[in-house]
Amino acid sequence: MGGIEHATPGIIVLTVCLLGPVLWCIRAAVGGREFYVRRIPGVDAINESIGRAAELGKPVSFTTALTTLGPTLYACLGILYHVARKCAQYRLKLFLPQNQPDVMAVSEDVVRDAYRTEGRLSSFDPENIVYLSDEQFAFASGYMGLLHREKVGAALMFGRFAGESLILAEAGQQIGAMQVAGSISPEQVPFFVSTCDYTLIGEELFGASAYLTREPIQLGSLVGQDIAKLFIAGLIVCGVVVATFNSLWPERMIRGVEEYILAPWSSLKGGANE
Predict the structure, then answer these.
(1) Is the pLDDT assigned to residue 178 strictly greater than 60?
(2) What is the distance between the alpha carbons of residues 115 and 217, in angstroms, rounded to a whole number?
(3) CA dist 128 to 26, 125, 221, Å?
């Protein structure tokens, strides 16, 4: 498929088909419509890990590691809000090891709102939100020390991770904490799979946030994007069918999907004249 220099009719139609379902689903969700989101084992494990920590009388740790302000952090904050509410209900200590100062400020507000929602604002302790370091491995060292000192019962890790992922996960495994992780970094997923009890892979992280918070914009976006993906999958299938047909019967060659998408405006006039 060649480069796109102008908004062709096909590109406009394609854009509407991709953005239309997202906008419609967001509007429907805001209007009160309930959308089904498949529950995955990793989501159940979040509540299970908090319940296990409550039974043992141990604190909970939640970190977004190297995640900066952006869509990934917003998804993690949805999970954090749910976790903080559960910790407030069970009167558990919730530690938030931090790597970024701006993320720390946002996370503190989210946790405070969660405690306020549960009517336990007096139990909120900002000192449990600990800034460790903005250096990758210094942060990992501080995280290990925090988990070993506090003997946490549940270690939750969501967001963007790099070479420190295995160090963080092994720290929780050494103290016997139940660990649930979710990463958008495909190269780090194998380390979490081998050391954590449950792992959310890729977009499951966003699905978990939408499911737990039931926030209309997140929920509508998730469902709308899935519909748009089905449309893209349909285009791929059509392209494969057309390419296969043209290779088998070259004398009956038909135009591919990309030709319709890239067809200029002049082709509409030409088609009308014909």
Answers:
(1) yes
(2) 23
(3) 35, 6, 33
Domain count, the chain: 2
> For residue 17, what are its two tokens?
């088909």
What is the three-state SS of 252-268?
A: HCCCCHHHHHHCCHHHH
- Spatial CB neighbours of 49, under 8 Å, sequence gap ≥ 6: 60, 153, 154, 156, 178, 179, 180, 197
Instruction: Measure the CA–CA gap between 129 and 132, rounded to whole angstroms.
Output: 10
Which residue range(s) make up the domain with 179? 41-214
Q: Is 63 helix (H, G, I), strand (E, B) or coil?
A: strand
Please check whether residues 136 and 247 belong to one and the same domain: no
Q: Which DSSP category does 184 fall into?
A: S
Which DSSP category does 70 fall into?
S
Q: Is 50 exceeded by the pLDDT of residue 248? A: yes
Return mean pLDDT, the chain.
Answer: 84
Q: Which of 170, 194, 214 delimits the end of a domain?
A: 214
How many residues make up the chain in this entry?
274
- Given a cut of 70, whether residue 120 has pLDDT beyond it is yes
List, as one string, the DSSP characters of 149-162: HHT-SEEEEEEE--
Determine the Cα–Cα distance for residues 97 and 63; give it in Å rounded to an integer.
6
Express each pLDDT in 52-101 by its tens digit: 999 898 999 999 888 888 888 888 888 999 999 999 999 999 999 998 89
pLDDT of residue 143: 92
SS3 content of the chain, % helix, strand, coil (to 5): 65, 10, 25
**Contact (CB, 8 A) for 138 and 120:** no
pTM of the model: 0.77
